[in-house]
Amino acid sequence: MKDRIYVCHTFYHVYIAVIKELNLKPEARGNATLVLSTMSNDFGSLKDRAKDSGLFEEVYMFDEIEDVKLPDVMAYHMDRGNIILNLMQRIKYTKKLGKAQEKNVPVDFKQYKDIYVFCDSDPIGYYLNYKHIYYHALEDGLDTIVYCDDARYANRGHFGLKAFMAKLGLIFIENGYSKYCIDMEVNDLGAIKYKNDAYIEVPRKKLIQNVSKDDSHLLLDIFMENPKQLLEQIKDAGSDKKKVMILSDPVCDLETRKRIMRDIINEYAKDCIAFIKPHPRDILDYDTDDFSDCIIIRGRFPMEMMNYFDELHMDRVVSIFTVVDAIEFADEKIMLGNDFMDKYEDPMIHRWNEQI
Asked: How far is the C-alpha of 14 from the C-alpha of 218, rounded, in Å?
């Protein structure tokens, strides 16, 4: 029986998995397995760097298949106009989506004592439900459930009935409602409106504070392909003006996103040196004349890595939806949120919790 395995879908997920491993005693490290899902993220060379770090015994890629690419599964994902009919077809959908992952799953999960899954709303959650395998869930991002309670939002209407069926294993609901979810780690239990008995509070700030200086170098080796490049970009920008970093988010269509970023630059980085840190899933091309007045931060890595550079300092950091509470390298941190996004798209698209 093997010890631990982490299933990650984003760079941030891997960051937290690494942090959790670094919170163990040195003699307990090095025997965990890391699984990187390719469904929604390109990890580049992260697999090799994670393996070379010695922190993980094995690192695998997982070609997870989303439901929209499976016509026979999507046939059971439509509104029949009746709660009973909808739930009957959802039972079939749950089983089919889980079963469809089987051919691509790279490990035998039953061989692990502890399985940690970030974002179990993705097909891996359905697979574990299908195989009757117990696991631990982890909050997708920092305070994700505070800002978007996905489980309740996606199951609006007759939630109690649906949650009951999920506890029976007939259908699947993420974030601690599955029959096979042992518990779910959240950052701040007190800030979550709708509590779940499966939630356990594991403050991420405390985990991060436990990382030693030596271990922070290991983090940089895993996530940064060229750390010197980042420092050179900051240094070459000069110091005569205030520095503002804008964190992009993969919102709206590309043209609207371009307009959003320009508006943020004009409003929050006027007469400043503007840096753009593209989100790993943001495919907008920033190497154009539209952003020729900005410095683009190169490399695909979680923004938290910048906390580990003593030389890095920003006067202001601005994001749309990315939670900025964990940032330590800026004097001022602004998350624009729903009120800002109301100007660019239908509020119903992003005001999730208000619709529960």
From this structure: 13
